[in-house]
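Request: Could I get any protein with tokenized structure?
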Amino acid sequence: MPSSFILNKNNGLSFFQFPLFQTVPGLTHGIFTRHGGKSSGPYASLNLSFSVGDQAQTVAANRELVINTLGISILQSLKQVHGKGSVEIQDGSPGNIGFIPESQSGDILMTRLPGQGLMIKLADCQSILLYDPNHRAVANIHCGWRGNINNVIGEAVKQMKRAYQTDPAGLLAGIGPSLGPCCAQFVNYRTEIPARYWTYQSRPNYFDLWRLSRDQLIAAGVREDRIQIAGICTCCQTQDFFSYRKEKMTGRFATVIALQ
């Protein structure tokens, strides 16, 4: 386990935190494992997605557990589409059961409102957290390999600059557990991945998407010393995380960040 990643337990749930974010007053976040929830079968047990075949009432109960664990008011999430659309949360009106229905599509969530848990659902894709300490704003990015190709990371930084006058050099960034260079195999990469990214092969047909995301953050103006990488491969560690590549029918874990 990378020394830069801290495991916490609260309310029966296990979640990881980046030290870079953990010490910031008024900021909470968690990268939740698959443990401690109420789902069963291939979704056992903290599945947080309504779209994978799990029972809706069970997913709702799992989301309530996350809300209570982090001490936030609301979970905000999107219909993730592997694009680079952004949604800014400007209305904090609570839903009936503590989370807002997923009525919007996109892969970037951002806000300056307190109590809003920005949630990205995952099963091998990266979550990338951004925090602007100067303007008290946060973002959470869903970034799979298609997101890397579309540079959803650069788009998120651009949108924070537009909405909050964010200086990228002041941002803190964290890259969550996801498909590692050990397992990110693309046998058809010549037709799927543009040639400009082929240098990110760690060995033939395998790509280091963590390094690519780090470089895209740096290209967007984020300082390298303000970037932390979890360094955990979800495909290797299905005992703790859901992995679509390894399990196919499975749940989704989540990364959440919120201003308090």
Summary: The first strand starts at residue 6 and ends at 10. The longest helix spans residues 56-70. The radius of gyration is 17 Å.
